[in-house]
Amino acid sequence: MRSLAMPRRLIAATVLLLLSGAAASANEFERVRPVTNDATRKECGECHMAFQPGLLPAGSWTRIMDGLDDHFGEKASLPPGPAAEIRAYLTGNAAGRGDPTLLRITEQRWWLREHRFRPEVWLRKDVLSKANCEACHRDAARGLYDND
């Protein structure tokens, strides 16, 4: 009887460990380090929330910084000094996973999985854009994206 108890405990512990690991990976983008670089907060935050580097892989941030003359339909060019500082900050603190061929956070697989809403949600006056994280996540600027 004692020999059966040990394997059951081991199996139960293993299952719990696996489940907690799956939950952690599913929620890794719900809490990201907030933006700590002043140039990024200032320059990016003038037009939109300064998105945390951990929301995109380095390849995406590189392509975004390379295309500031047409930044999602806007001219967002920067002087060389601040541009280099922001690029280094974003790429140096980027997500460890994600699709580097995608420029938009809202096109990343993890984002799409978390935001399966009816299309009219994005048309609400208080939302208006998939990139308006703060419409639903009050603490998005602090890197907190728990389901609000």
UniProtKB/TrEMBL annotation:
Keyword terms, alphabetized: Signal
Matches recorded under Pfam families: DHC (PF09626)
Organism: Azospirillum formosense
Signal sequence range: 1-26
Protein name: Cytochrome C
